[in-house]
Amino acid sequence: MVENRLDTTFQALADPTRRGMLASLALGETSIGELGEPFRMNFAGAAKHVKVLESAGLVQRRKAGRKQICTLRAEPLAEAEQWLKQWEEFWSLRLDRLQAIVEGSR
Amino acid sequence: MVENRLDTTFQALADPTRRGMLASLALGETSIGELGEPFRMNFAGAAKHVKVLESAGLVQRRKAGRKQICTLRAEPLAEAEQWLKQWEEFWSLRLDRLQAIVEGSR
Fold first, then answer.
1. pTM
2. 8 Å CB contact of A10 and B13
3. How far apart, in whole angstroms, are the C-alpha atoms of residue A53 and residue B21?
4. Measuring CA to CA, which of A75, B26, B88, B103 is 20 to 30 A from A105?
């Protein structure tokens, strides 16, 4: 089964360490080792989370000498936000309807 | 460990069946059996997904005779959207910076 892009994005976001890593990457590209530091994580632990982010298309990885440098790819976040935005419209619609009911009952 | 609300929301959204169930619930409250129908799912299968949605605070369940009626609770979706919105600001900031660089190099 081909996994849906929204599936992998939301899955990647369902972990505080990975959300924290994305926040670090928002400040600029970083090595896997450095990404793990705030979480007192060794290379293997950090690499495991980076792999999930990479599979979701949220991180691009490249080698620079002995380091592996990660860069943020934010497109999937925009898609996830777009999906959630449709609910925003639904809430507004419900609020409009509620308002119409309230005004109609005056 | 107390699970973060964003963790459980994103986890619940990381499945196309559960996202479809939320879409059904957006049209109005529904029984667990009816929620499973579009996915050709039996009661047990549907109930499993509803439990995940309920744990994430996205669904409220009540008994009505022999049926279990589900209602959408959209607050966690708003919180998830809020979290994603901060990235939107970050993108705009990056675009502003890029624009400044481009304009500065003219």
1. 0.83
2. yes
3. 26
4. B26
Distance of CA A7 to the CA centre of its chain: 11
Mean pLDDT by 10 residues, chain A (106 residues): 80 96 93 94 96 96 94 91 83 65 67
Give per-residue burial for A61-91: e unless 16+ CB within 10 Å, then b.
beeeeeebebebebebbeebbebbeebeebe
Distance between CA atoms of A12 and A51, rounded to whole angstroms?
A: 10
Residue A6 C-beta-side C-alpha neighbours within 13 Å = 16
User: Considering only residues 1 to 20 of chain B, which have any Cβ-Cβ distance to chain A shorter than 8 Å?
Assistant: 4, 6-11, 13-16, 19
Check residue A2 and give its pLDDT.
Answer: 40
Give the count of alpha carbons within 13 A of A79, CB side only: 15
| Chain A residue nearest residue B17, CA to CA | A7
Place of tokens 């964003």: B6
